[in-house]
Amino acid sequence: MPRWRSFRLPKRTRPLSGGCEQTVVLQDFVAGSVGELSIQSGQTVELLERSGERPGWCLVRTTEHSPPQEGLVPSSTLSVSHSRSSVDMDCFFPPGKENYPVGSSEVKSESSASLQPQTSVTSLPTGSPGPKRSGTTGNTLKKWLTSPVRRLSHGKGDNTNAKKPNNKQRKRDGRKSVELGPSHQDSTEERGRRGVNSGGEEEAEDEPHTPLPPPMEIIKDSSAQEEKTPEPGSFPVLGSVSPSDQTPRDPETEQKNKAMRGRMFVLNEMVQTERDYVKDLGVIVEDFMKRIGEKGIPEDMTGKDKIVFGNIHQIFDWHKEFFLGELEKCLQDHDRLAELFIKHERRLHMYVIYCQNKPRSEFVVAEYDGFFEEVQQEINSRLSISDYLIKPIQRITKYQLLLKDFLKYSTKAGLDCKELEKAVELMSLVPKQCNDMMNLGRLQGYEGKLTAQGKLLQQDTFFVTEQDSGVLSRSKERRVFLFEQIVIFSELLRKGSSTPGYQFKKSIKVNFLSLEENADSDPCKFVLLSRGSSERLALQAANVDIKKEWVQSIQKLLDMQINFLTALQNPQEYHKKETGGSLTRQLSNSSRSSSSHPSTPLKPNTAPNGSPAHKPNKHAEELDEGECNGLSSVLVLQDYNAVKEDEICVVVGETVQILASNQQNMCLVYRPANSQSPAAEGWVPGHVLSSTR
């Protein structure tokens, strides 16, 4: 261990001399524990003091926040000013490592371990004050710029008769020399007293005949530095451990601790980025929307302003007033994270609605770009409105990535990850649904009502070959959308663009659909036919897996059609079968078992148990009165569009039959076939239903 380290005084904190000084942050740092401060590259902070308990850390204060924030940061993240004295610089450079001059053949590196004890700090009187900053900051700066090696001993006292080094010597050495031993005329006591009076700032007299010590050995391994024992007479260094005290670390424990630190880092990133996200949403709601309301909109834009923002106000309110606070609580209890996303997964489906509106929003913003640029300048916004409107889509994707990282570290730490795996699965589906809705929102030319076609089950790009009356057309690239009630074929517009569009070409209703699983001995091909027509559409998928998914989804729809036709022919037998067997299968055909609602068969004269967060309302009470004899027919009070795979769309005025309900006030209903749509079975919220009298 270099000898000079052994003389560090064991104080709790050691303030920097000369008061506070501002410095620039070189790299980002995220606080990982209480007492630390998050900083960003380029930020200006004030240096307050160094930490005695945590070597290599400094206490800083921000200059850009009101009120200013204080906390510990690593010294390596700061740009150290050259106007610091040598004692101050101890805080910023790792002990045992020095800067050495390069390019001068006459100058040798000096070893701090070779300095004479007579000139060390221990030679100072115990009651003397610590080193003080020189009166001239310019001289201090010049010394640090011209002296690559820091002086650890004090020079000679202030002597008016002292011989000053000439210019030739300065040019030859490239630096001011450091006195390595006592002069023959001075005693040790006198040298110590003079060193105190001068504050260690005055330069020693040049002694060209004094031999230089050999260069200090460069320590490559920091652990080897700690293993060196201090020489007799020196004070023990805080935190140093002798080889006999060191115990071998368990690799398994070390790996677990590393994984736990990784978990904490990911969680900190999630919370910090959530705070930034809420601020960005606030710019849209509290700046853009507010200014547009005050300024007014162009006459031809009336009604389109709502399309621009969609339901972003709802997203902002929920994140600001609820979700951010819940995430911050997870910093104290990490196990809350998975439960938080699972519990509020349905709430996050408001992003699906936002994404469905996003293509129309982009179109309006592009049409009135001049108006929105004016608003941007008036509110002094750094980013455009388009940059802010894309942030909800970026955020819903970010949750999935952060949760995957959190799961990865939790698995490495050997923790129970069942709930986390479920949360990751759910948050992987929400971005997929958002992407599906964004693509669907770019479909042009379809005159029907897409929301009346049931849930979007699949969408992908195929090469489609049409054959009508024996005439085979050329293969064309088509975007195909599979709904519960219709298959839509569209042409890709703006191919290669980040915001592609789709032009409607043709469609086949599911109740007229037929399927041929194999075509032309091609494992990636299948054929769709329309009953009552000679038209055949051969679809070639990009790979076998895509073909299998589509064939399974289409076959499932066709099986449901057959079952419902059977039910129409013999309703009593169908209801008996459904009430007996189907209620116990837990919707096994659902492609996503984790999102299906746990069903509970209704008993006569019993109402569904509402959860504490959802009190039974008037409609639920009406359901209770109408649910007799195992099944009840109810009227739909309002339209409902399915947002999950096991739900169905219902329209106001339709009559449905309740098959089961659960504690979330969701009802499993059967909707009979009518002239516009086939029969369907799925979940709907209880508040959209009312019993018939």
TrEMBL record:
Domain named SH3: residues: 18-83, 629-693
GO cellular component, one term: extrinsic component of membrane
Region (Disordered): 61-81, 102-257, 575-625
Compositional bias per record (Basic and acidic residues), positions renumbered to this chain: 218-230, 247-257
InterPro entries given in the database record: DBL_dom_sf (IPR035899), DH_dom (IPR000219), Kalirin_TRIO_SH3_2 (IPR047053), PH-like_dom_sf (IPR011993), PH_domain (IPR001849), RhoGEF_Guanine_NuclExch_SF (IPR051336), SH3-like_dom_sf (IPR036028), SH3_domain (IPR001452)
Pfam families documented for this protein: RhoGEF, SH3-RhoG_link, SH3_1, SH3_KALRN, SOS1_NGEF_PH
Biased composition (Basic residues): 165-174
Domain DH: 262-437
PROSITE patterns the record matches: DH_2, PH_DOMAIN, SH3
Biased composition (Polar residues): 115-126
Protein location: Cytoplasm
One GO process term, biological-process aspect: intracellular signal transduction
Domain PH positions: 449-559
Compositional bias of kind Low complexity: 104-114, 582-600
Record key words, sorted: Cytoplasm, Guanine-nucleotide releasing factor, SH3 domain
MF (Gene Ontology): guanyl-nucleotide exchange factor activity
The protein's name: Kalirin
Originating organism: Phoxinus phoxinus
Source taxonomy: Eukaryota, Metazoa, Chordata, Craniata, Vertebrata
